[in-house]
Each structure stands twice: as structure tokens, then as C-alpha cells.
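tool_call: predict_structure(chain=1)
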Amino acid sequence: MDAFLASTLAVAIAEIGDKTQLLSLFLIARYGQRLPIILGILLATLLNHALSAWIGAWVASWLPDAWLPWILTVSFIAIALWLLIPDKDDSESSRFLGMGAFMATSVMFFLAEIGDKTQVATVVLAARYAETFWVIMGTTVGMLLANVPVIMAGRWLMERLPLATARVGASLLFVVLAVVTLWGALVNS
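tool_result:
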């Protein structure tokens, strides 16, 4: 259950102000259809984060046990620093907009997540926790927790979220994950 809770919390907080949240706002303004957009986010996130988590688990399986905590600690700190950099919206000119709300959302979210901090976080979380399924479920729920309110409340919500505070909070969460990972390795050695 630790894998699910840590993954959910990490991604939900990290997504606040992320480009996919801006993409959600753009898509709901463009299509006005909540359910197809939410289902598109669900599909794209499950596919993208499943691939990411399996890669993380695979990498963790061939790394020497002594190296893994150190690599994870550095990775968590790198993500923490990355989270401090605001994202920008680059979805305006997408060629996928003519596909309809569900397909456009699925494709655009999948592509937006490639190389995104939450995808990298999913890889690192899956390397950290042996429960890959729960990492996938947690990161997916975290993505939905961050994006569904934007779809439901749209611009009103985005104008009231303290994005700088959210970025700092998410950054601190990843620093805590780094400290816990390193502490666990030191205590167990």
C-alpha cells in the first residue's frame, strides 16, 4: 500500500501546474465534453505509466543492490529540482485536435507525458517499490486527481491554485522520498 499512496501523492502534487493540467484546461475549453476527456486521460496515463513503471522495475532488477538506493536518492532529488521549473502550454497547434475529444486527449496526453517529470517519477517510483502494479495505479490516480478538477471547474480553479506553492510542495515531497530511501538503505546495511 506504501507504493500506491506514495505514487498517488507524488504525482497528484507534481501535476499541479504541469503542462498536462494546462492541456486539460485547453481540451475542456475546445471540446466541452468532460467524460471523453477524462477517459482519454485515463487511457493515456495507464499506457504511459505502465510502460514507465515496467522500465523502472526492469532497471531496478539488474542494478546491484548497493547502487539502487543511491541512484534512487539522486533521481528523487533531480525530480525535486525539476519540479521547481514551471511548465508552459504548447498544445495550441496540435494536429490531433480533429480526432475528437477522446482520441485527441488520449494521443496528446500520452505524448505530453513522454519525458515529463511525472513519467520520470513513475520510473523512479517503480524502481523504488517492488509493487509495480500499485505504482501504476497510484500514478494514474494521482494524474486523475490533478486533472479531473481542472476539467470539472476549468479556468475558475486554475486562477485560484497557488502554482508556485504547489511546485515547492511537490519538490519537498520528492526530497522526503530521497531521504527515506537513503535512510532505509543505511539502516538495512
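agent: The first helix runs from residue 2 to 14. Proceeding to next step.
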